[in-house]
Amino acid sequence: MTDTLRTENLKVYYGEHEAVKGIDMTFAEQSVTALIGPSGCGKSTFLRSLNRMNDEIPGSRQTGNIWIGDKDINSSETDVTVLRQKIGMVWQRPNPFYKSIYENIAFGPKYHGIKNRKQLDQIVEDSLRKAALWDEVKDRLHTSALSLSGGQQQRLCIARALSVNPDILLLDEPASALDPISTSKIEELIGELKKSLTIVIVTHNMQQAARVSDFTAYFYLGSLMEYNETSIIFTNPSKPNTQEYISGRFG
Amino acid sequence: MKPKAADKLATGIIVFFALLIVAVLLGMLGFILFRGLSHISWDFLTSEPQTIREGGGIGPQLFNSLYLLILTMIITIPLGLGAGIYMAEYAKPNKLTDAIRLIVEVLSSFPSIVVGLFGLLVVVQQFDFGFSLFSGAIVLTIFNMPLMVRVTEQAFRSVPKEQKEAGLAMGLSKWKIITSILFPVALPIIVTGTILAAGRVFGEAAALLFTAGMTTPHINFSDWNPLHHNSPLNPFRPAETLAVHIWKVNSEGLAPDAAQIAAGASAVLVILVLIFNLLARWLGRALYRKFTSIK
Amino acid sequence: MKSNQDTPLLLRKHRTEEWIGRGYTTICVLFLIVIIISIVYFVATKGISTFAINNVSLSDFLFGSTWSPDDNKFGALPFIYGSFLTSLLAAVIASPLSVCAALFMTEIVPSWGKKLLQPVIELLAGIPSVVYGFIGLSILVPFMRDTFPGQGIGVAAGAIVLSIMILPTITSIATDALGALPRNLKEASYGLGATRWQTIYGVIIPTVLPSILTGVVLGMARAFGEALAVQMVIGNAPHIPTSLFESASTLTSVITLNMSNTVMGSVQNNALWSMAMILMLMTFVFVFVVRLLERRHKL
């Protein structure tokens, strides 16, 4: 299976402003890539462009190619619906649907045509297990998702993203709104999930990037400054700017 | 000391006027209920009105008001929801959208009598629906739609945008997101707004004088086939509503107990509007709790 | 999800849904547009035919003070005057009351003022206009008859009834504006040692004045278009009143009373449509003024 995610000269514009300036990147499969950099460096925009969420923002457009295997998903022929099944996404603030825990997970598979109740039950259980939430909620699957704590809600959102069996998972600062205990649970989960998924995570937290990721990409003013194995970026970066950011001198 | 004295005086005046408003409302409600409740009986609520003799009731009018309200809402809700969703979710920030917004604003400011006259000319005469419940329902829809559009738009805009993003990232169509994800969240506000709008429709009279008519033919309350001429459910018969009846009794009532009938009918109208208000609040809160399960 | 034969099916479903949603909501908006265009078109055509077909002179209609259809005199000035006079008076009575109510809720006793007055204002807004007319007829008119010269009915009675009806409109807009004021604005004034009234008078009112004016204009618009409540208490004499306690008419009251007693297409009937056209044009004016005020408010 060579469904490697790769971008080629990817640019994102908001109106006239070029927010992402021609990024070439290849994401290693079954590993975690962290995107770091100061606020406004384009890392979140870049992440959102990978499943074309920027399409929904009026006045934005993106050029270049995003390859999954040999398919360019940035071409106008690719329907975003199909693409977004393959790429799951989780945001900074947990955003479960105003539905029951069960419905939150079963919603996507149902929409994609799975009607069989047993099959759905199985998907719900599998997804919740993968997100390490099953044991906490198995007795109250039909209560509202909003009754969960923030950390649980975020894991529910991860489970929801997993329910449609994506190959790639995009995480946009998934732990920045959570307490330390919930954060460590999410980080543990990421380590578990990368066994079967390609994970791209945006984070402001250097320690977190160092802990969870295998590769790290440093963004600055819309450009990719440096991209390498995490251990190298954090111990021996090749650019002084990277060094300054990582050591907390600005950002 | 002078500014202090002025401050006290001004505060006193403000409090006085505020309490005056409360007193005016209580006085009016008290008057209506005091004068009206004594006249309300089962017989009054169900029997037919009398033109010259004493003891007329408001049965058909009450039925007409409720039935007309239902007919109106059947037309208004789908149209208002659709247009409101368009404004909240599909409209792009451009000149066309500005124009539609202006239209909604103008339409909501039109005097109801002008809308009624339009109904008379176009629905009653041009399309030949005559003085009928149907004509009345169309006019009330026009009268009510701007409010529904605004309520719907606000309700949809109040849904956190992360909800929509989550749906988009799952590859749902926009319409599926609107109906399955956003709509349940927006529903409490929509329900509250709709019921309040319904209360307004219920009390409207000026727009109905020339569309639903000022008379009610004899209705046979044992025939519920909407296609029959004398059936209460026949939407193409003229129908005087409760509000119109109050106006008519006051301006040309010949019955000796016209004042009592007007008071009784007003009390019924006010009580129903009160019920609408309370229902709107209660239902909105109950739905909100159900969907968010915040205890 | 990996099976490729599912994909076209899902795509088709997706496209169909998009098509349904876009189509349905667009039709609803088109309905709105068609309605407004037809209202303007039909009312204007009918309203203009008085002058274009029946050859009534526009100036006679606008400035003629005799309304006597039997003598072919179609001076609508008494009604135009009556409409403007009652709605202006209503705004004059209601505005200070509304501003006081808003200040009461936001500045004087913010803790419980809103709990007391908010439901009161909402109920006032919910009472149907015929009920206002009935109350006016049963309480206000006898009171005016006993207190002032005249029959009780008349411009004053109409204006008072209207003022209560537009009170909620002005109050809620004023309350929203006051509630949206930044905290530090008031604190700066109190910090300088100003009393509450000095703060209200010197800082708060000037800041929210455009919003209050917006409320007043919206209230006047409502008063101008209100038909039955005014018609029930104003007396309906087709003259320019010389005192506030004299019977008069408004555009809406004349239309209400005469529309069903005249034959469609007759001069008298067309003249009523011309009055409806004035009501419609005034709606445009009110909306325009509100927009102007809102724009000023944003600056």
UniProtKB/TrEMBL annotation, chain A:
Gene3D superfamilies: P-loop containing nucleotide triphosphate hydrolases
GO cellular component, one term: membrane
Gene Ontology MF: a single term: phosphate transmembrane transporter activity
Keyword set, alphabetical order: ATP-binding, Cell membrane, Hydrolase, Membrane, Nucleotide-binding, Phosphate transport, Translocase, Transport
CDD domains per UniProt: ABC_PstB_phosphate_transporter
InterPro entries according to UniProt: AAA+_ATPase (IPR003593), ABC_transporter-like_ATP-bd (IPR003439), ABC_transporter-like_CS (IPR017871), P-loop_NTPase (IPR027417), PstB-like (IPR005670)
Enzyme superclass (EC): hydrolase
Coiled coil regions, renumbered to chain: none
Keyword Signal tagged: no
Keyword GTP-binding (UniProt): no
Record-given protein name: Phosphate ABC transporter ATP-binding protein
GN (gene name): pstB
TrEMBL record, chain B:
Mode of membrane association: Multi-pass membrane protein
Compartment(s) of residence: Cell membrane
Annotated TM spans: 12-34, 66-88, 100-123, 129-149, 177-199, 258-280
Main subcellular location: membrane
Keywords: Cell membrane, Membrane, Transmembrane, Transmembrane helix, Transport
GO terms assigned for molecular function: phosphate transmembrane transporter activity
InterPro entries attached to this UniProt entry: MetI-like, MetI-like_sf, Phosphate_PstA
Pfam families the record matches: BPD_transp_1 (PF00528)
Coiled-coil intervals, chain numbering: none
Gene Ontology biological-process annotations: phosphate ion transmembrane transport
Keyword Flavoprotein: no
Keyword Membrane: yes
GO CC aspect terms: plasma membrane
Domain ABC transmembrane type-1 positions: 62-280
Domain of life: Bacteria
Alphabetical list of SUPFAM superfamilies matching this protein: MetI-like
Family membership: Belongs to the binding-protein-dependent transport system permease family. CysTW subfamily.
PANTHER family registered for this protein in UniProt: ABC TRANSPORTER PERMEASE PROTEIN YQGI-RELATED, PHOSPHATE TRANSPORT SYSTEM PERMEASE PROTEIN PSTA-RELATED
Name used for this protein in its record: Phosphate transport system permease protein PstA
Species this protein is from: Paenibacillus zeisoli
Gene (UniProt): pstA
From TrEMBL, chain C:
Keyword Secreted applies: no
GO biological process: phosphate ion transport
Transmembrane stretches, start-end: 21-44, 79-104, 116-141, 153-178, 199-221, 271-293
Principal location class: membrane
Pfam families on file: BPD_transp_1
Protein topology in the membrane: Multi-pass membrane protein
GO MF term list: phosphate transmembrane transporter activity
Subcellular location: Cell membrane
Role this protein plays: Part of the binding-protein-dependent transport system for phosphate; probably responsible for the translocation of the substrate across the membrane.
UniProt name for this protein: Phosphate transport system permease protein
Organism: Paenibacillus zeisoli
